[in-house]
Amino acid sequence: MIRIAVDAMGGDYAPREIVHGAVLAAREYGVAIQLVGVPDAIQAELKRHSTAGLEITIVPASEVVAMDEKPSRGVMRKKDSSIVITTKQVAEGLADGMVAAGSTGAAAVAAQIGLGRIKNVDRSAIACLMPTCTPNRCIVIDVGANVECDAHQLLQFGLMGSILAKGLMNIDKPTVGLLNIGTEETKGNQLVQDAYKLLKEHENINFLGFVEGRDFPMGKCNVCVTDGFTGNVALKTAEGISRMITVMLRHELLRTVPGRLASVMAKPALIALKQRIDYNEAGGALLVGVKGVCVIAHGGSRSVAVKNAIRVAKDMVVADVVRKIETTMNPTIMSALGAACLVVSLGCIT
Question: What is the pTM of this model?
């Protein structure tokens, strides 16, 4: 049975919604859940649910890294915090993966310190499964772990994103796009120009070329590569537009009698649309490049989002994503990448 450690104390609605989501996941996905945090608080929430036949255990942790704490300081000082102990469960082989809905920074720091980066991976990255007009989601990588990147790191993001797309969405040859201000090869700054050459030349990447911010929501590519600063802006903009459309649609439908009647008739379609664009259905973002499965859920996650985050963690374990990234980033392949980088650098000089 797959074992998922869950930080029960992280998030805006912890531990109630976290525990509820964990119970739902244990029942629906047949996984063993390890709830990490203050035992009395977790036990009080577990009593609210029927857990007969479910494999749910409590792993004690006496401290919590708050959302407003500096991530590195909180993780380093609070050795018995729920996020540190959750990470430790995976690092010591006691759990197959972890889910955290607290501070994104704290989860990323704890995972990088506790699990360590995969050999030859320069930077770990956060990958987000964004909704599109197609049945598949688009993996946008990076969406916040690295404010500044170089071309070689963007190439690595493309490789790791491709592995995720193959494993989680069962796509044989996922298409990869590089986020830019235009699709023409001459557009963009030096970073994307250099990364374009590396991605285009790599035999293990099905590279489409540059894509714009309006392209990946339409399903133009399966993986969208970008630096963490740009990716986070794109992510937050998409979330804002989604909420804006929801509010505006509700207002217009309820403003008139014909609109209210139409909303009743269209209710099934509206529910289906909400499920496609709701972050609760996606579950959470994936921290890739570390030596373990780590899913970071939204800080405002309710029980459904937590349940789906655990599903994503399970899927990553089943797809053997970490081992596949380790294999892809082996020294032989990375030597070839180093030679490619040298060629690009020489080309820039001349």
Answer: 0.85
Class of domain 128-280+328-350 (CATH, top level)? alpha beta
Q: CATH homologous superfamily of domain 1-116+290-319? A: Isopropylmalate Dehydrogenase (3.40.718.10)
* pLDDT, tens digit, 9 for 90 and up, residues 243-257: 888 889 888 888 898
H, E, C per residue of the chain: CCEEEEECCCCCCCCHHHHHHHHHHHHHHCCEEEEEECHHHHHHHHCCCCCCCCCEEEEECCECCCCCCCHHHHHHHCCCEHHHHHHHHHHCCCCCEEEECCCHHHHHHHHHHHCCECCCCCCCEEEEEECCCCCCCEEEECCCCCCCCCHHHHHHHHHHHHHHHHHHHCCCCCEEEEECCCCCCCCCCHHHHHHHHHHHHCCCCEEEEEECCCCHHHCCCCEEECCHHHHHHHHHHHHHHHHHHHHHHHHHHHHCHHHHHHHHHCHHHHHHHHHHHCHHHHCCEEEECECCEEEECCCCCCHHHHHHHHHHHHHHHHCCHHHHHHHHCCHHHHHHHHHHHHHHHHHHHC
Give residue-wise pLDDT tens across range 97-128: 999 998 888 999 999 999 999 999 999 999 99
